Amino acid sequence: MTTATQAAIVAAGTAVVLAPIDPQHLRSNEPEPAPTPAPPTCTALLLAHAEAELAARARTALGMPGRRMAKEEGETARRIGMWSQHELNSLYERIGGTVTTRTVQRTTHGGESTWQATEITVTVDLPGIGPVEIFTDWDEETGGRDLPVMQATPDAVLIAA
User: Fold this and answer.
1) Pairing relation of β-strands 79-81 and 130-137?
2) Which phi and psi angles does 102 have, rounded to 5°?
3) What Å distances lie between residue 77 and 38, 59, 64, 84, 129, CA to CA?
4) Mind listing the pLDDT tens digit for each residue in 110-129?
5) Angle (nearest 5°) at CA 73 between 55 and 137
6) How many other CB atoms are there within 10 angstroms of residue 77's CB atom?
7) pLDDT tens digits for 65-91?
8) Bridge partner list, 137
9) Cα–Cα distance measured from residue 161 to residue 156, given in angstroms and rounded to the nearest whole number
10) pTM of full prediction above 0.85
11) Contact at 8 Å (CB) between 132 and 82?
12) 130-137/114-126 β-pairing
């Protein structure tokens, strides 16, 4: 390759790099594609698998095999939600546990409204798993003040109101 050819290549390359950019070519009616999320790491996959395994073992030990975690409802491997105080009472009568209540803030999925609720929790220590909390919100309309789980609450005065 001659020196003249090399000089021509360098000049052409410099002209391309230094050429003005027409902003019209940068505009497009097409929306920019959403960024592709990074694939999960091996550690994240192992942790997720371990949590799913623990959740399955806990739910099986409680007599709820096949029930999945509802993370959007605040569930974890060791924290399981129930539909009602009647469902929670059935579990309590079968396996026992420690009953507590607390006041919590709840929000609709869209975040349009919030309210205070009384959460009832039964805590049990499952062999080979450890402590697990089973919870639900008190619902006045469905009743159940006379349920054993409600009578076991240290805050029975709160529920009896």
Assistant:
1) parallel
2) -155, 155
3) 25, 9, 13, 20, 10
4) 778 999 999 999 999 999 99
5) 105
6) 19
7) 888 888 888 899 999 999 999 999 999
8) 119
9) 9
10) no
11) no
12) antiparallel
